[in-house]
C-alpha cells in the first residue's frame, strides 16, 4: 500500500490521537492497521452505510448451506459476520478473526445483541498467519481488508486463504473498487493525504487478477455502485470477487 500520508493539523483530542496512530509503528503493517482501527471502531458502522447492500449481495453469492464450515477473515465490527451466521441457520457454527481487539469487541457486542454470539467463535489473528488447519473451510469470506493491505502482502494472504480452504471451497472477497483501471477522483484525493483518516486508509483495488494469479478457479467479479448518505462514498464503488479453490490435489492453491 502507499505509505500513509500525514493528515492535516487536528483540533480535538480524539483527532490528535488518530494522528498519533498514523505515526505508530510505520514499519509494522499490522501494528499500524491495528492502531488505526482501534481508533475507528466506534464510528466504523455509521460511516460505512454503503457497505451493507454489498454484503447482502455477497452473502447471497456465497450460497451458504447449513452445516458448512465458514471462516470470516477481518470480521471488523461483525456486520457481515451476522449475515453469515444467520445464513448458516440456528445450528450453524462459524469462525471469525480480526487483527484489532477493538473491532472484535464491537463484533462480539453486535452478535450478542442479535442473539448470534453462540454461532460464532471470534479470535484475534492476522490474515497472514491464520490459526487454522489446512483444508478446513467450505467458505472463506473477507471484506474491505485488501483495500487497506499493502500490495506486496496480497499474494501471501491469498495463499493463506487457499491453504485453509478445502479443495473446491469458495472464496468471497468484497472491497472498495473502481469501474476501470484509470485513476479516480477518490484516488487523487487519497494520494494527497486528504482522506487518510476518513477513508480508514483504504483505496480502490482490483482483486480479480490477483485471485487468478493465486491459482483460484472460476473467478468472477461484480462491480457495484455505492449508495450512501456521505458524498465521499459516492467517489468509489465496491467489487465482489468470487472464486473456488481447485478441487484437484495437484492444482494450486
Ligand atoms: C475496513 S474494516 C472492514 C471490516 C469488515 N470486514 C467489514 O466489512 O465490515 C478492515 C478490518 O480489517 C482488519 N484487518 C486489517 N488487516 C488485517 C489482517 N492482516 N488480518 C486480519 N485483519 C485485518 C482490521 O482490523 C479491520 O477490522
Query: What's the level 1 CATH class?
Result: Alpha Beta
Give the ordered list of helices and strands: HHHHEHEHEEHEHHEE
Radius of gyration from the CA trace? 17 Å
> What's the story with the biggest beta sheet?
7 strands, mixed
Q: Any idea of the CATH topology?
A: Rossmann fold
Number of helices: 9
How many strands appear in the DSSP assignment? 7
Helix-residue proportion? 25-40%
Unreliable residue runs? 1-27
Query: Which descriptor suits the 3D outline?
Result: globular
Bound molecules: S-adenosylmethionine
> What's the CATH H-level homologous superfamily?
Vaccinia Virus protein VP39
- The CATH architecture can be named as 3-Layer(aba) Sandwich
Secondary-structure-derived class: alpha/beta
**Order of strands side by side in the largest beta sheet?**
3-2-1-4-5-7-6
What share of residues are in beta strands?
Answer: 15-25%
Amino acid at each position: 500500500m502507499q505509505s500513509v500520508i500525514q493528515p492535516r493539523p487536528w483540533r480535538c483530542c480524539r483527532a490528535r490521537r488518530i494522528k498519533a496512530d498514523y505515526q505508530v509503528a510505520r514499519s509494522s503493517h499490522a501494528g499500524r492497521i491495528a492502531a488505526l482501527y482501534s481508533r475507528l471502531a466506534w464510528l466504523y458502522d455509521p460511516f460505512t452505510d454503503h457497505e451493507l447492500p454489498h454484503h447482502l449481495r455477497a452473502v447471497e453469492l456465497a450460497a451458504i448451506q447449513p452445516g458448512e464450515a465458514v471462516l470470516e477473515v477481518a470480521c471488523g465490527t461483525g456486520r457481515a459476520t451476522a449475515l453469515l451466521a444467520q445464513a448458516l441457520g440456528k445450528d450453524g457454527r462459524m469462525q471469525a478473526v480480526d487483527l484489532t481487539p477493538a473491532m472484535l469487541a464491537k463484533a462480539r457486542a453486535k452478535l450478542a445483541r442479535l442473539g448470534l454470539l453462540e454461532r460464532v467463535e471470534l479470535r484475534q489473528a492476522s490474515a497472514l498467519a491464520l490459526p487454522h488447519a489446512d483444508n478446513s473451510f467450505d467458505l472463506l469470506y473477507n471484506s474491505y481488508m485488501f483495500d487497506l493491505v499493502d500490495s506486496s502482502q496480497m499474494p501471501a494472504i491469498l495463499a493463506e486463504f487457499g491453504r485453509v480452504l478445502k479443495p473446491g471451497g469458495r472464496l468471497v472477497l468484497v472491497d472498495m473498487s473502481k469501474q476501470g483501471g484509470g485513476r479516480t477522483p477518490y484516488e487523487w484525493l487519497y494520494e494527497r493525504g486528504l482522506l487518510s483518516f476518513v477513508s480508514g486508509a483504504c483505496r480502490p483495488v482490483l482483486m480479480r487478477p490477483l485471485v487468478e494469479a493465486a491459482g483460484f478457479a472460476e473467478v468472477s467479479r461484480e462491480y457495484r455502485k455505492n449508495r450512501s448518505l456521505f458524498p465521499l462514498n459516492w467517489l468509489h464503488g465496491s467489487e465482489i470477487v468470487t472464486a473456488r479453490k481447485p478441487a484437484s490435489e495437484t492444482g494450486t492453491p
